[in-house]
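Hey all, quick one. A colleague (J.T.) asked me to put the adenosine-5'-diphosphate job into the tracker so the inputs and the structure tokens live in one place instead of scattered across chat threads. No bug as far as I know, just bookkeeping. Sequence used:
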Amino acid sequence: MRTLTGITPSGSLHIGNYFGAMRPAIEAQVRGDCFYFIADYHSMTSVTNPVERRAHTRGIALDWLACGLDPQSSVFWRQSDVPEVCELTWMIGSLTPMGLLERAHSYKDKTAKGIAANFGLFAYPVLMAADILLYDTQRVPVGRDQKQHVEMTRDIAIKFNETYGETFVVPESEIRDEVAVIPGLDGQKMSKSYGNTVEIFGDEAVLRKKIMGIKMDSRTPAEPKPDADKNLAIQLLRLFAPANVALDYENRLRAGGLGYGDLKKALFEHYWTYFAIARARRAELAANPDYVENVLREGALRARAVASVVLQRARKASGLE
Ligand code: ADP
Ligand code: TRP
């Protein structure tokens, strides 16, 4: 069962990325045959500073390795090190109806927010489809916001197969209900673009301040809170604390007597401890940039070995060869 996913290096990774995409991907490693990459071509639609792109790409490589990506068993590479994906983008883009791309939520959301549309932003799902199809992917672990892109990939694969004969594997998304949408500090979906994130790694004082700054209602600590299960700090605590501990806080909040300050303090401590081992590992890796660069280079060689076979199949089927 081949599993593949990518993360765009457009900022620091947050706990929404971690629970929605990274952790399922890391856990999938026990199944074997995992392909994970840093989607640096995708970052070109939002990041235009080369220094920033390099820094984010490197930072995300460190994040993945620190969180448990095992480069011995999984193939881990930088998207642009296998530029064949751009050739495939053109081949499948030529079969992708405009209407399909016009219906993409992410494109509609971005343009509605006033982000100027350009070809890259519009064609983004086609590049993503090429990422998936180029490696004969069967499973794509992602958060719910990416589901539509995987569905578009399926449509594109089916269209190509109908037009040129069986060429591509038709993939499926893997979305875990319990972590499909991790809420941000303001209760909306956590996203780099909404400025409501809790980073996986970062400065302790800054992160403590972010968590202590979560807005709560004005009920007094003593008041019972029958809606305790919907409290944002409780929802986040469930991600980091053992189930019985989170439930205990929820019950205390419901009964009255637990202040929001104490709850947020507990949330911070559990969050900080949760990533302690990964944090130490990240610091070690950061001190060894050659190691990380080598991992990505070797990963690109392994990725390319698969990509070239699939691309040739598509070239033959479509009459380019
Ligand atoms: P962002 O919205 O912060 O820009 P990306 O679009 O780069 O995040 O997402 C990278 C991966 O993380 C995707 O698989 C996406 O579905 C997942 N993801 C992002 N935000 C969340 C969230 N709040 N909850 C669950 N998964 C998320
Ligand atoms: N578009 C994805 C995101 O913003 C990143 C991505 C690029 C991806 N190519 C992919 C995810 C292929 C899964 C499979 O999060």
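Adding what we noticed when we looked at it: The chain has two domains: 3-182+289-318, 202-274. The chain is about 55% helix and 5% strand.
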